[in-house]
Amino acid sequence: MTIALYDLVGADETRPFSPHCWKAAFALAHKGLDFRSVPVRFTQIAGIEAGEFRTVPVIRDGERAFVDSFQIALYLEETYPERPSLFAGEGGRSLSRFIEKWAQTTLVGYIGPSLLLEIHAALEPADQAYFRESREKRFGRTLEETAKGREERLEGFRASLAPLRLMLSDQQFIGGQGPLFADYIVAGIFQWARVISPFPLLAPDDPVAAWFERCLDLHDGLGRAVPAAA
């Protein structure tokens, strides 16, 4: 049975953009599992699965439904152990937990505020109203004020990637010679930015950029199925 992945979209439902949904999509593809994307907009999330969940991604696998990208990855690992591993053991789970926290602070801490206006522009009017109200409450200022100055902060962001850059100078993936869920955590965030905005987060000669290109090629080019924002 094909697994359903509830996937966050804007006005164009062919362009899913949530970093967390992309983590789940990469994880499903890594396991070689058939899945279909079910497009959901911000204001529709509360209605999926009879209102059982309040965030995405959510997957429906037969009689079971799960929320949260990391919990989905753990479920897939436990339920389909015969398929390629997302963690390669307990150490990989711990590594992925660290990468998740690092990515949330270092990557999302800069990328999230920087993309606010472009995310808003990609939404339908009802979702725009929800997004503006919820994010301005979260940040304590307007979207415009929060996004302002991303160009001036860019070099500092790029410098903060030094540990990842040094690692990827010596190996193909965070997981070693092949990708693990830790790679998908980070790749999902860069894919979020790629789908929403043409703003150049990475220099072309950055090893992190080369790694991300490799991630986009994985699983028959799953990441490239959605063109980059122009």
TrEMBL record:
Pfam families in the cross-refs: GST_C_7, GST_N_3
Arranged from A to Z, the UniProt key words for this protein are: Transferase
Q: Which InterPro entries match?
A: Glutathione-S-Trfase_C_sf (IPR036282), Glutathione_S-Trfase_N (IPR004045), GST_UstS-like_C (IPR054416), Thioredoxin-like_sf (IPR036249)
Q: Does the keyword Ribosomal protein apply?
A: no
The transmembrane segments are none
Tell me where in this chain the GST N-terminal domain is found: 8-84
The record's annotation in CDD domains points to: GST_C_etherase_LigE (cd03202), GST_N_etherase_LigE (cd03038)
Does the entry feature the keyword Lipid metabolism, yes or no?
A: no
Q: Which top-rank group of organisms is this from?
A: Bacteria
Q: Which GO terms describe its molecular function?
A: transferase activity
Name this protein carries in UniProt? Glutathione S-transferase
